[in-house]
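dude i think i finally got it to work??
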Amino acid sequence: MTDPALAHATEFGRMYSRSLTEPPAVPSITTVIAQGSTSLAGWHSYMAASAVVKHPALPGAVGNAGQLRSIVKEASRASEVYRDQAAERGTRVHYYCEQVALRALDQPHQLAEARAVLAEHGEHQFADRFDEWWQLYQVQPVAAEITVWNHELGYAGTLDLVAKIGGRLCLIDYKTKNTDRDGQVKQLDDKVVMQLVAGMKAEESLVDAGRGEWEPWQYGQDPLLLGVAVGQTEVRPMRANPAVLPQHWYKFCALRRVWQTSHDALAAGQALLPIAPPPVQHPVQPAGAHAAAAGQPASN
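look at this
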């Protein structure tokens, strides 16, 4: 994931502001889509169990409760470690892709430095395959890492690339993917269609973050929407099916309402409040009870 200038990490998820001096105002496209995430409990359990089995200290820890607890504690974070490492790798690959586009646009770039960082992490194959795809598809960049805003629904996001391919205007989102056992890049998730259609439905694009300057969105009129899986063995572009775009847009709109409801509930204050036990209630005695207890006749 890239780090756009106007994006902020908040308790409500990633949000965007209108300028560098304004507070966050709307959720990011990815934050909205995340409202519909499915449970990953099975994957977390698998990662933890796998980490225990593969731990180099496991044979010597058998029969030692203290060492086993240490191994289990370390393994419980396996999915978090994997997620963070994948995110860092994705940032490095996205940065390289951006630099390729900036060079093609004759803008300042750090292409050599970006490739060197990938090489330091043993990830130069991502750059090699991306370069091959760029040449094969004769990509002509129009804008790289462009931040967009939709006022009507209330969201913002950053598109990886606007480009022309084969004379057709394209909105492109890169996804760094692993390779399967057959040497092929793993499939893209259908959620990329929501991400792309939300970008297409933008109303403005950022001109200058410091001044908070925006202009009408120029590239939302019937572009080709491409999800591009970037791997170490190949790059696989996939086109969003035009027939399903309305449904994915409606789903995005519904998830935006879910985010708003969650935001409002959290902002409203503490959901659960402590409650004290009721005061002790002394039983009410009937008339004459005090006199009878003292041995005196009750009055009529």
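The chain has a mean pLDDT of 90.
im so relieved honestly
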